User: What shape does this take?
Amino acid sequence: MTRLHTLSASFDWRAERIDWPVTTDVGPGLAGVVALETRVMWLDPSSGQLAYRGVPIEALANHLDFEEVAFLLITGRQPADDPTEFETFQAGLRRSRTLPPDAIQLIRSLDPETHPMRLLRAGLSAVGCHELTVDDDLAGERLWQELRVVGQVAALVGEICRHRAGLEPRPPRDGCGLAEGLIAAISDRDPTPDEVRALDLLWVLYAAHGLDAPTFTSMIVASCLADPYYNFVAGLSALRGPKTGGAAESVLEQLLPLTGATDAEAWARTTIEDGGIIAGFGHRSYRMPDPRVAMLRKEVAAMARDRDRGELFEVARAVEITATSALAPRDVHINVNFYGALLFHLLGADPPLVPCLMAIGRMAGTTALVREALSTIRLFRPLSRYVGEAAR
Assistant: This one.
């Protein structure tokens, strides 16, 4: 049996293969546990390196759009290497945004003040009831091949945006990309190229990031061979919590009321001194600042300037600098949600809508990981250790 010292900062998270069984260092919350092997993505907690199918995230961001990166994650091939197959993939992704009328009616029948993640959970369950027939196998193998769920989630989020704003449904323009269609749904106008590029960037950066709680939840459900809609609804439920996608909501709830850099610096200092939490700081994997932050910081600065929201960026920078000075010595660093939430907001999202927008990007990575694992995955069944009273 191989012993892996996974909690050591020098541990190499790449390997030619894993010779099962292995034992690993284990921390609280299963920290350090190696649960599976994958070729989909690589995350190195020590160096901060992140790669999809061996391609560094820096080489993908702003060079490929989300649909191209989804193709890379799910198929393992670059769009340029197989343009015909990519065109087929892209066309199917976009066609899948046509939703069953009953799913739209369900969303429209609910209070628009309902949290959008609840609306998304209900809508995706309803879509699953239409997609699966009695002739489908329980694991939904056909649906994993067709990948309709990725586009369906984008369409559901667009519908939820319009319902909350009191707007009538606006189907995506024929042939338009996922990012273009979503921004049109939020803003009720044709988006600019910069807006489309910014949303594609966000989805690329959020697409895959190891076995975080929502992804691991989906993998557990996949190990039961449940169909994709059970799988994604379970993952969405984990994304809703304040320690995952809900943390991005908190970033906006904290930053938006601040009125300037001086106010922001004082607030951050007081919050930390009083033992409070600065949303957008801290990460279960990284021992350093999240490498995706630099790309998003630059994008937020440019869009805030273009939209005459420069003060919002100044507030964010003041909080980042103050919090980093106080928290970095404790090994607490900025994460992707800090500037990610701000960029979603500049694109038209209010705080509760941010986790829904994050979810669209995550569909690609989760789909890729589950498809890869379906033929070999074993039912997840860890054990627990009893620490209660002795037998009586």
Q: What stands out?
A: The first strand starts at residue 2 and ends at 4.
